[in-house]
Design brief:
Length: 421
């Protein structure tokens, strides 16, 4: 339990806090109430200003020329920040870039995630969702929903969009979990600096080969679009191309799988909401928005001020970093009525799980589509469902959600199974 504001702010920099949601939200509530812009000094990371109010997170994100992504876009260990300062950037994806580069590089993939592209992808996503519900039926009424369904379904969607062979999907999943789970003893490769960097290096080796192949023999996929992009008349550097692949291939599925798994968990722990959604399927769009708010798979981003700035009468000096706490913003009492109530009919739902401003999530529409399709396929077939064990959360300060969700269930046969009888 956080006993004072200093302890509460330090909790936001502790990866273990994000695997203990009660502790995290208790600390965030204290900060929102008593010190929304508070100086934090966690043990393993360099200090930052903790930003916990919805309006303040929006203000920082919208002032992107003052609060820059570089050089510290995510909260990492001191030794990783030292390595970056000594050797330069070891990854330069969209979440690490500022304008003018960000605007130019974002345009490379934008057409693959626009409304027209999503409409073309809808049937395939629906088909995959139905296939994974069929997979649940094949598992005999008991499974770990995270490991058996939630991580594979969006992974298949995004890696197919990239054009990667299905045989490489398990490797991509392992590397993603190692990369985002560097603070989690169940997921990290090891504890040394070399171990923490190894998944990223493996990604880069894989994607550098992919870049060479797509430039030699272009295909009709997102990987070719990235490999053959030439802003300013020149191909992307190896670092920029590989970084682009990494953010699409990892964030493009891990955040969605967290929302889906956490969304199901929320329905199971709020059975009246599950019953309401089954009785009123038209509520699915608002239910998905509430799942995303409830889970908030991106826990934080960092920004660094390039000039002095006053936020709630607190002077943030040039060179100081701020941590944008999305779980806190999405429980802000000034924005959400009964923010700790899971309400599938919540409307409006001004959550910030996808960010705001120029860095708004490129794949937001795809994430929403995948979640809607999965639950649209699952809910009509449910006879009953319940937890079959204790769920567990990923230890992280960046991206994460449930890593274990054991469930027991009964499903009706699919339409196609009934027709075949």
């Amino acid at each position: 339990m956080a006993t004072d504001l200093a302890a509460a702010a330090a909790i936001l920099g502790d990866p273990n806090s994000y695997a203990n949601e009660h502790r995290l939200h208790e600390a965030c509530a204290m900060l929102r109430r008593d010190s929304p812009v508070h100086w934090a000094e966690p043990e393993w990371a360099y200090p930052f200003w903790a930003i916990t109010k919805h309006a303040d997170v929006q203000e920082v994100e919208r002032n992107h020329e003052i609060f820059r992504n570089s050089p510290r876009s995510v909260l990492t260990r001191k030794e990783m920040d030292d390595l970056r300062e000594q050797q330069g950037e070891y990854i330069r994806s969209l979440v690490h870039m500022d304008n003018p580069d960000h605007k130019v590089y974002r345009a490379i993939g934008a057409d693959w995630f626009n409304p027209r592209a999503m409409r073309k992808l809808q049937l395939r996503v629906d088909e995959l969702a139905a296939n994974y519900v069929d997979r649940m039926a094949e598992l005999g009424g008991k499974c770990d929903f995270v490991a058996d369904v939630a991580v594979h379904y969006p992974l298949y969607v995004i890696l197919s969009l990239l054009g990667l062979p299905e045989s490489d999907f398990p490797r991509m999943l392992q590397l993603t979990q190692e990369l985002f789970g560097g603070a989690d003893p169940d997921r990290r490769r090891g504890e040394s600096q070399a171990d923490l960097m190894a998944p990223l290096m493996d990604f880069f080796n894989y994607f550098n080969e992919l870049t060479r192949a797509r430039r030699q023999s272009p295909t009709d996929d997102l990987a070719s679009a990235i490999a053959n992009a030439a802003p300013g008349g020149e191909y992307l550097s190896d670092l920029d191309a590989a970084s682009y692949y990494v953010i699409v291939a990892t964030a493009g599925h891990d955040t969605t799988s967290s929302s889906i798994a956490g969304g199901l968990h929320a329905l199971l722990t709020h059975p009246e909401q599950l019953a309401k959604l089954r009785a009123e399927p038209a509520l699915l769009p608002t239910a998905v928005e509430e799942m995303i708010r409830w889970v908030t798979p991106v826990k934080s981003f960092m920004r660094t001020a390039v000039e002095d700035y006053s936020l709630r009468d607190v002077r943030i000096h040039a060179g100081e970093s701020v941590l944008l706490s999305y779980p806190s913003a999405n429980r802000d009492e000034d924005v959400f009525e009964d923010p700790f109530t899971f309400d599938i009919a919540r409307n409006p739902n001004r959550h910030l799980a996808f960010g705001t401003g120029v860095h708004y999530c490129l794949g937001a529409a795809l994430a929403r589509m995948e979640a809607r399709s999965l639950f649209a396929a699952l809910l009509p077939r449910l006879r009953d469902i319940e937890l079959a064990g204790e769920p567990r959360q990923v230890v992280t300060t960046f991206v994460g959600g449930l890593k274990y969700l054991p469930i027991r269930y009964q499903l009706n046969p699919s339409v196609f199974q009934r027709l075949a009888r």
